[in-house]
Structure formats: C-alpha cells, structure tokens
Design goal:
The chain is mainly beta and 101 residues long. A five-stranded antiparallel sheet has the order 1-2-5-6-9, with no helix packed on it. A two-stranded antiparallel sheet has the order 3-4. The chain is built from no helices and nine strands.
Length: 101
C-alpha cells in the first residue's frame, strides 16, 4: 500500500529542564519516531529504522552577556536516518560559548 514518506506513524518527545542553581540549566531530551517509510531505488515504500535519540546538556549564564554550554547528543549511539541514505552522526559532544551584545 501507499504510505506517506518520512511521516512517522508514532512520534513522541519528552524534555525536562531543571535549574538546580541560579544561572545553571540542565536538560534531558528524548525523541522517538517510528513507523516511517521512504522511497528507495528498488521499492516505492520501504520501512525505515526508528529514531531513538537521547541527549543531555547544561547551559551556564556567567552574566547577562556571556554563557557557556555543553551538550551530549545521541547517547544511545543510534545510526538512524532522518532521510533515506543520509545517516546522522552517532554519539557527539559539543562544548561552546555565547556572547550577546
């Protein structure tokens, strides 16, 4: 049968942000997308692997203009594809800063 390409049949996202101390935000984020279909060279509609993406991070606001952050993405190291043929990175970590003026 025909299926809507890339439209998940099951989709959920949970996110929690916590402020344990002043100027610090810690977050946990989970994303699920399942029952997705995509066209391939050999099939009009092929079921794709589900997306299970778990991430954690922290943001610290040093003052009104300057902040630093650390994000750890795809902790489950899933090699899913948002679009068929284009896999995402596995486990990644990002550290950086921001300046507002």
């Amino acid at each position: 049968g025909r299926k809507a390409w890339y439209k998940p049949g099951v989709e959920a996202r949970l996110r929690a942000d916590v402020h344990p101390v002043d100027r610090l935000t810690v977050f946990a984020d989970y994303r699920l997308e399942a029952l997705r279909y995509a066209p391939t060279a050999t099939a009009f509609s092929r079921m794709m692997d589900p997306i299970n993406d778990l991430s954690f991070g922290a943001n610290y606001k040093m003052n009104k203009e300057v902040g630093i952050f650390m994000h750890v993405n795809n902790l489950l190291d899933q090699r899913y594809q948002v679009y068929y043929g284009y896999p995402v990175h596995g486990f990644t970590a990002l550290v950086g800063g921001s300046v507002s003026f």
